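Field reference: sequence -> structure
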Amino acid sequence: MSYAHPTRGQHTRKPFGFKRNLLPIPAEYYHEQGLKLIGGGEWKNALCPFHNDTQPSLRVRIDTGAFRCMACNAHGGDVLAFHMLLHGLRFIEAAKSLGAWEESR
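Structure field:
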């Protein structure tokens, strides 16, 4: 059985630019996006921006940024996923717009 050489090709690869620790704090990010988070505990409720919502059907976890809409099933694991879905961005574009992407040197 052969294994890939752990250092082969590293001189040609650019370092991965995504820095999760630079993502905004979920509670602050959702507030900036215009969501009025209500309720107690780790999960908060809000009107879902992904469909014409009249009753708060979006559930947001304020410590991780995870979200799920109980009506339209929009969901994701963090503010990056929410930002991508809300603004129609690809991963790198969304990470850059949130300040969580560092260009390789």
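Note: The chain is about 20% helix and 10% strand.
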